[in-house]
Amino acid sequence: MYTIEKFEASGYLLALTLVLPLSGWLVDRIGAKALYLWCFSAFTLTSVLCGLAWSANSLIAFRVLQGMSGGLIAPMARMMFARTTGKHMARVVGFAALPVLIAPILGPAIAGAILQYASWRWLFLINLPVGALALLLAALFLPPDRDEIKRRELDWVGLALLSPGLVLLLYGSERLDQTVGRLTLTAGILLLSVFLWTAARKGSRALIDLRLFKGRVFSVAVIAQFLSNGVLFAGQMLIPVYLIQACGRSPGEMGWLLAPLGLGMLVTYPSMGALTMRFGIRRVSAGGALLALVATLPLVLLASRGLNLLVLAPALFFRGMGQSAVGVPSISAAYASVDRGDLPMATTSLNVVQRLGGPVITTLCSSVLEWRLGVPGSGDLKANAYACAFVLLCALHGLTLIAASYLPLRIDHGRMDRPESE
Questions:
Q1: 3-class SS at 416?
Q2: 197 pLDDT higher than 50
Q3: Which domain covers residue 164, as residue numbers?
Q4: Per the confidence metrics, is the pTM higher than 0.85?
């Protein structure tokens, strides 16, 4: 059963990545509202098919289809936020993120109850009434955008390079201990390199217009997103591994020990709008990055001297607060720095970079940890391997702080003020 779960989860995530580069072109072609409704309908339908699956192979196939539709929903939602909210995006996204943060807390409890009292099929079938309600609300309240449709031709060469390149990169980065994983990773890097070369030559006709990255604000915001998403995922890998393997905690205990991290994020997100309005994009994002860095430093001490729950709990809480203060302001800065007509392309670029940040930085941290654990020596030396990994994580938090410090100060009527140094 574990192998089936692993394959269907991997199939979902890889399929999601495969269609992600199409989001910008599809929005230009049929409109954001129409695309959102089609994708949500497909996601709901494939959820039902997953619940009705008659074999392991059919479940995996339906999960792949579910991932292809689900991969476009989140970018569309974010882009529509940017279109309708303008400079108030940080406030709206802060509140809209609450269900996403609450889901990891309530999700396991609800899933456990379903598995205990009903069939596993209801994990998917429960999406039918939820999806139907969401479709009705979206059809009624999402603003029409047919007048913003552009008949842009699809960059087939770019699609053939970028989508498989992303999938191969993500697939290979999770299997670096295997020869096939290293070969797959190399192939993914080659495909992405060729894509960048062709996209630079095509300009606005490319699947992703690289000229967006010539804008200073957009480029800095994308780098901040890459790093903040990367350190978030890397921490989600390193901290549980440390608690289970180095501290001997059970998976159940580990879940409770990580609860302060989610609570810290939950506390901060709703106040993003008020904080950015008062202190500005740069100060909030850089302040959050600094707080996350300071709160990660105690993990180095815990790894080298032993676990102390009185230190771990507040460290994770403040790390969650800091992490949540980096992402929303930098996303707002990225969207406000581009023209309204370029929002679909900007959405695709941001989501591709975000999706790369997690596996790239997580792979880097896990590789350093495995290397240090493989060094012959005493138990103390192996225990210090986790300290070394956390030092690297702190360094990456430092890079995030540097990137956030170069964000502009404020949003003014959908555009950014010039940096104070200019």
A1: strand
A2: yes
A3: 155-206
A4: no
